[in-house]
Amino acid sequence: MTRRARLSPDAVVDAAATIADDSGLEALTLAAVAAALGVRTPSLYAHVGGFDDLRRRLGIRGAQDLERLLGQAAVGRSQRAALTAAAHAYRRYAHEHPGTYAAAQRAPDPADELAVTAAARVVDVLRAVLDGYDVRGEDAVHAIRAIRCGLHGFVALEAAGGFGMPESVDESFARMLEILDAGLRATTPSAAAARARGR
Known about the structure:
By secondary structure, the protein is mainly alpha-helical. It has helices spanning 9-23, 30-37, 51-74, 79-96, 98-103, 113-131, 137-159, 169-186, 189-198.
């Protein structure tokens, strides 16, 4: 069987993920994917709809990976244990698959049902973690944004070499999670009621 005969949308995305993870998302081109697969660039159009579609598919792959890994990490745990396990899974994925992770950070086109669903399922895992803190509704939306900002900001700075001081980066990550946990505990309905009684 020839290399060309084994081409499929998944094989093309696999090659794209390898290039993006090894060399950075900015290195991803159709020509690079074609070279990695041993085919001419026009051959790819039978499997993906061009470069934008390839990026879209890679982003969906990253979101699906994150949803699966975060869900596996958090299952059976609650509150701080769930938050910590999910956060470490998130950081590990960003380390091991930096290009695919980066592709997953772009907000999907609202008309792209598959991409919207993949992104929403990552959010659903975080929402389930927040259920353990009894943080729901509008409060959960704000909390999810805070968690995402913390995790993405940390891994992005780490990837860019932004932590130059000698203190342990792992310790900094652990302390950030302590802060997030404390903040979430402070926003529970019982904590809010206690603050109201103290006024």
